[in-house]
Amino acid sequence: MKSPSKVLLRFLLLSGLQLANGCTVFVVGKNATIDGSVLVSHSNDGEFDTDPRLVKVPAAGHEAGSRRNVYFSPESYPRYVGKDRNVQEYYPKSNEQEFKPIGSIPQVEHTFAYLEDTYGAVNEHQVGIGESTCSGVFGAIPLGAPNGTALFSVDQLTQIAMERSKTAREAVELMGDLAVNHGFYGAGEFEGTAESLAVSDSQEAYIFHILPDPTGYSAIWAAQRVPDDSMAILANMFIIRQVDPNDSENFVMSDSVHSVAKEYGWWKEDDGLLDFTKVYSDGEYAHKYYSGRRMWGGYHLAAPSKNFPADYTDLQSDPVYPVYTKPDFLLSAKDLFRFHRYYYQGTKYDLGGETLAGGPFGSPDRWKEGPAEAAVKGNWERSIGLYRTSDTYVVQSRSSEAMEKGGLGAIMWFAPASPNGSVFTPFIVNLSDIPPSFRSGHQQKFDRTSMFWAACFAHNVAQLKWSYAVKDIERRQDHLEDVSIALVQGLDIAYKYSKDMDYVEDAYLKNVEKVVFSLWSLSDELMFKYASGFVNEPDNMSQMVGYPQWWLKAVKYEDGPPPPPTTPKCCHPEKGGPSEKKHSFLRVETIADAQHGLSMLTGKAAMRHFLKQN
Ligand SMILES: *[C@@H]1O[C@H](CO)[C@@H](O)[C@H](O)[C@H]1NC(C)=O
Ligand SMILES: *[C@@H]1O[C@H](CO)[C@@H](O)[C@H](O)[C@H]1NC(C)=O
Ligand SMILES: *[C@@H]1O[C@H](CO)[C@@H](O)[C@H](O)[C@H]1NC(C)=O
Ligand SMILES: *[C@@H]1O[C@H](CO)[C@@H](O)[C@H](O)[C@H]1NC(C)=O
Ligand SMILES: *[C@@H]1O[C@H](CO)[C@@H](O)[C@H](O)[C@H]1NC(C)=O
Ligand SMILES: *[C@@H]1O[C@H](CO)[C@@H](O)[C@H](O)[C@H]1NC(C)=O
């Protein structure tokens, strides 16, 4: 085949497409965490239309010869409507049409239980997955669409991985093989044509990259093991560099990785190890630093001693960040909660600091572009914490030690809406179901029973006086998350000795209720405390805190209306002179005062003053 240039391919794929969503993933090996857990996280950063529901897919037995349907995944709400997989939350409601499959594959005898948001997230064997869309040099069209060739989206692959895998390695190989055999398509018009995942189990973690092959009927994929003492960050761009097909302990990949690159003249044997990102990535999407800034930010928090540069020429050809690195300290799930709330505070990229764009109270949120941004070209920094996130989670795949202490499998820490205004709340796969506050609810319908709206409400009310309110929010998050961490440990032990799953389930559900209630209450408290520009505390009401000095200067407060004019000398018969300004104001509280004042003062100014006061 003739070799079309990469530039041409990019043009064909991307012309006219707006690429601006994204997701951030952290993955941490077991020797780099405080308790030997393997951690994988994911933020689902849509445009206020992604589906924030957390649901449980129950384990199931299947008849020999049955098929597993595969669907097109819209990612917006509802992500699926139908009865497959037996999730009540997905059953058709009035006006909803069941989704039609775009194909099917042979079913297995038994499928495992798991939790999912838009993607399969964690299963009963502690296999966890975090997702981030990437650019890729090839794109494909889903089956069912005109000229469609590919059966699998990453959403469907992650579900099937959950249903069938007991380890991260099995999950990676299964997803790769399915995509090679049936084709792979990317998230579509608004995002990249490729995908990356971090996949964990209780022992190890892999980074997985996938894109369609040039025919559209197959796929190109590679996975690299994250060393136990290291962490990695995925931020909407591939990160895997040199892949070594002979190092099967650390790499797994499709044959197409090398065959396609060779066919297109992008790599030959003499070149040595193939650089996956250089060959198959299409670089950062949306704008420069869209991916790199988040990688820098994550490493700035976890490995400040490495001092990775914040600047580079082109992240694809200039790999300033390694595939993985060793954090400076052992990380916990709670550290990842903090990382996902990061707006680069305290650095020169701080979105919430003293910038005019954030307003007087330093809101870190920069809303989506409208018509004005079409005229005034520019970009905002892309932070890790983001207002338009539909949900963020951290999967904690726990060590054999933790399991021996009674551990009830992996913990899923789930926070709907923007993580900076939300609370990470623990779930286990063995709960009989996810409670309605987390299982239902979405952006198209305001709902006071949903955790999504509780968190979205708090985040938005905080805009009244962000730099103040964020402190109240942080205190509440800290409290509720610490209580949850203690609860998880306590319930492990309780289960070990009692084997009473009903008790455990009840305690998890009560904790969920408490979190949702507390978050709604927090919104009311914030409204009370910051209403109408004051700071109101029950024993110190209507504190007039004003605006910060830097902001007053920036908006030229000093150039506003001047102080009232000084009464001319002529009107102060007794003393007069500029130093006697205060006498130009006469307090007039009674008619007697007025008469007295009038007897002292003469002239129109005094009369005006009198008339105004009465
Ligand atoms: C499908 O492919 C054919 C042949 O390449 C092309 O003419 C047609 O426009 C395509 N249809 C769509 C909807 O893209
Ligand atoms: C991880 O920890 C184990 C047990 O403490 C140790 O044997 C192993 O060498 C460590 N591996 C790495 C890569 O640090
Ligand atoms: C992989 O192993 C094969 C066979 O042992 C060898 O020919 C090849 O050069 C090796 N490739 C690399 C990249 O080391
Ligand atoms: C939430 O965002 C604000 C930025 O305005 C920041 O000050 C605060 O520390 C963030 N929370 C966390 C836990 O990082
Ligand atoms: C958790 O669920 C699985 C089936 O999904 C079951 O085999 C296991 O016994 C359950 N564990 C507990 C502690 O209930
Ligand atoms: C009330 O708030 C103001 C401004 O925040 C503060 O200066 C003052 O000390 C507070 N008074 C009491 C009694 O706490």
TrEMBL record:
The keyword Signal applies. InterPro entries: Peptidase_C69 (IPR005322). Keywords: Signal. GO terms for molecular function: cysteine-type exopeptidase activity; dipeptidase activity. Residues 1-22 form the signal peptide. The keyword Transferase does not apply. One of its GO terms (biological process) is proteolysis. Belongs to the peptidase C69 family. Secernin subfamily. PANTHER family: LD30995P, SECERNIN. This is Peptidase C69-domain-containing protein.
